Amino acid sequence: MTKDVILTISGLHYDVSMEQDDQNEPLEVITPASYYLKNEKHYIVYDEIVEGIPGTIKNKIRITGDSILEIMKSGISNTHMVFEKDKIHMTQYETPYGEFMVGTYTRDMKVTENENRMDVYVNYVLDINGEEAADCNIKIKIRAHKK
To answer: What is the distance between the alpha carbons of residues 102 and 90, in angstroms, rounded to a whole number?
Structure first.
């Protein structure tokens, strides 16, 4: 894989308090990123700009084998979320609007890779401050940037 990549992150959250699926809109971010492999772990690094708030969020995604996905954010938001199949991980999530405790219970995770691409799929339950908040899916696509 090349150092310069195009990163696509799409997610769908099914809010457990909503009875209708039509209010659960998918979210998608497509951005240039940097990729590197170190100690058999894949790293993807990119900056995120939040509309209406000065500053950026530095994001680092670390993929270990086909079993662990970590998302680390620093800047105007700070957290270190871990997704590991059949395990619950808790973390503090700091935002410009306040802090809260987030838990993730990963039900399923799949990682596929080849020379010029990598795909990660995660299905998990999101818990916020001790309350189940949503059933979630994340799809991450990393593609070598063709110049």
So the answer is: 6
Q: Indicate the pTM of the whole model.
A: 0.89
- pLDDT tens digits for range 81-135: 999 999 999 999 999 889 999 999 999 999 999 989 999 999 999 999 989 999 9
The DSSP code sequence of 72-131 is: EEEESSBEEEEEETT-EEEEEEEETTEEEEEEEEEEEEEEEEETTEEEEEEEEEEEETTE
End-to-end CA distance of the chain: 13
d(CA 29, CA 13): 15
Contact 10, 26 (CB under 8 A): yes
| Tokens (6 digits) for 53 | 């708030």
